[in-house]
Amino acid sequence: MKSYWKFAALVAVIVGTLIWLAVGGTTGNMTYYKTVAELGQLGSRAEGKRLRVGGDVEPGSISRSGGEVSFVLVQEKRRLKVVYRGSEPLPDTFRDGAQALADGRMGSDGIFRASQIQAKCASKYEAKPGMQHPANINKAGV
Amino acid sequence: MENLGALAVLLAFCLAVFAMAASIVGGWRRNSFLVESGRRAVYSIWLLLTVASGVLVTGLLTGDFRFAYVAANSNRAMPMLYKFAAWWGGQEGSLLLWSWLLACYAAVVMFTNRRKHRGIMPWVTAALMAPQCFFLILNAFVASPFRMLAVGRGITSVADGRGLNPLLQYPAMAIHPPMLYLGYVGFAAPFAFAMGSLITRQPGDDWIHTTRRWTLVTWLFQTSGIVLGAGWAYAVLGWGGYWNWDPVENASFLPWVTATAFLHSVMMQEKKGMMKVWNMVLVSATFFLCIFGTFLTRSGIVSSVHAFAQSSIGWWFLGFLAIMIAGAVWLILSRLDYLKSEARLESVVSRESSFMFNNLILLAAAFAILWGTLFPVISEAVTGDKITVGPPFFNRINIPIGLFLLFLTGVGPLFAWRRTSLESLRRNFQWPLAGGVALVGGLVAAGMRHPYALVSFGLCLFVAWTILVEFSKGARAIHLKTGQNLARAAVELTQRNTRRYGGYIVHLGIVLMFVGFTGSAFNQNTTVEAKVGDSLSLGHYQMRVSEIRDAENDNYTWYTAKLEVSRDGQALGAMTPERRMYKASRQGTSEVAIRRRPNEDLYLNFAGMSDDNQRAVIQAFVFPLVSWIWIGFWVVAAGTLICLVPNKVRFQYARMPAVRVTGKYAATAQK
Prior knowledge:
Structural class of chain A: alpha+beta
Helix content of chain B: 55-70%
Structural class of chain B: alpha+beta
Strand content of chain B: 5-15%
CATH architecture of the largest domain in chain A: Beta Barrel
Distance between the termini of chain A: 44 Å
Order of helices and strands of chain A: HEHEEEEEE
Helix content of chain A: 10-25%
Largest sheet of chain B: 6 strands, antiparallel
Largest interface: A-B, 61 and 95 residues
Number of helices of chain A: 2
Strand order of the largest sheet of chain A: 2-4-5-7-6
Oligomer: heterodimer
CATH class of the largest domain in chain A: Mainly Beta
Shape of chain A: elongated
Radius of gyration of chain B: 28 Å
CATH superfamily of the largest domain in chain A: Nucleic acid-binding proteins
Number of strands of chain B: 13
């Protein structure tokens, strides 16, 4: 009986630790997924929140200066200016007209500061099962 | 041609339904005629699906662009290898591959067990044919690879197909999906045997002995598939990462986690008759997660931007999964009495409890990964907002879990069954523990402050040490008895108990992989825009751009930069990263330059040209220890293969009457 309680205690400690980690990890890393249109509706409430915004890259809007890349995401006639300053290379699929996901925070000046960009080419493309989709190429390493 | 393929799939579907029905009725009524006809139907299904696959592959190889599938996934310019790989390049083809592999496995199961397990075989057939029916429904009616391009009522064709994505035209990528599929599909066999033994309430653990090698082989396929994917991502994608907790990666990783838990906990059932319910749950969960993984990649349910083929196919998967899960749960619950444990846990410090904690932790990992992967779906259902949790979430949970598992890897095998005395703990762990602590102390003194990395390195040394001590202990005993030298004695030792020592080698491989993972805590990178003559430096390395060139061929235009690399003033030669822009798809790819060394990789990526087209954007990365991941994988593979080899004793002595007892014991021990 004594060993039974020891077991119960150990299991409780382990499971408790993991739940604590999971809850902390979930609340600390929540990123709201919004489209450009939805972001426009949010208005100033979006400021400062960690967001992931999806839209199409406006053709001709990509410009590089120094280590900074800026471009415009459009969706349903709404536009969002995005500035990306990150150490990682932009994905190979990132180009005019591509669907892109920008991960970052909304600034008070209405410019979205992205820390990560993912992109998917506009043409229909099916990925293979169990394989990394080329849209994910630009991400932090583990 | 096209009609032949479609007809073969249709016939295979009818036969699969028949095989399942005949086996169930035959098993129920003990009608051996029906059972036998069900068995033979399985062979026919294999034949029919081989024909269907042959038709599709012929279409791909010869460029028959009347097939919608060929037009979408192949083109004339592709090399033969990738034309063949286009078989699994799209939804329809990869589902056909699933079906065909399942049929192959089913046929092998039927053939190897044709004179064994009379009682449960009908049910095994039925359990194998259930997923077969499901996938054949998809092949025949939902996602047929034999759809033709048609205008009005006439079949038409296009001049050239769209071809495979250039990023995927890479040898490791061509074999990565079938590897994973071999692992996914293979778990149908252990699952079928488990269900068969449950249905018939077979006494004993026959199903585990029968499927032990299956499980190991499919586990090896899964491992290889996952590592191939990681290696491809590292070498091709240009950001140097190999794992990012992407939903698709998670989908392939989940069944691996539960399969690993299963491999460990079956030992408890074999040796002690414990954890029987648990094993049933694990083998079912693994198989369901394999189906679920296919579903996740096929339905596009999880991440919005990686919309794969968005189709109604997801609902088919969900329906099938729901039916199978309900069936398995009902079977397990209705037969709990037969799954009663034969022994109890006695001590917290025992082999049993280390197995139990290993399982608990692995399951927790699987659950956390599943939770994180499905979080956007769950949160959208609950709050209406789609919320994702990124890699930080997964790392936060899985790094401690990984370290705890590593710790168990070291201590578990050395705990005695039932209970372990303090004395033996001291004897076994004194020096390895001292070694690990000393290493941590040394690293702290050398200025390392990363807490997880310190713990990980300490544990790696500790575990490796305990494993080597096990080998040397056994080898010395043989050396004393036979006079063989120690190296030869270690080989002899491994041959005598392949399962145990093969397992240790697998553990050693995992330790090496952890060394590689830990190195990522010290990654460095820099990005510069450089023209010819400019220099950049990163860590110990200095690089000078000596040449930037551009040119083109039929397929793509390319830029290369030549960089003269030196380390602490000592010249190391030139590296030339390249950037390609494929003309047909207007897609760019990076051909990175990697200098691989055991201590660290230098990784150069040509990210593009600056806006004024004068300077090259060069990204340099240093990845410490990353090679050990790949080395560790080969060690894991070697260890797994050793586990598959029968013990030597059994072969040598089994036929000699005087030592028949030894032979018999060896046979039992080997099981």
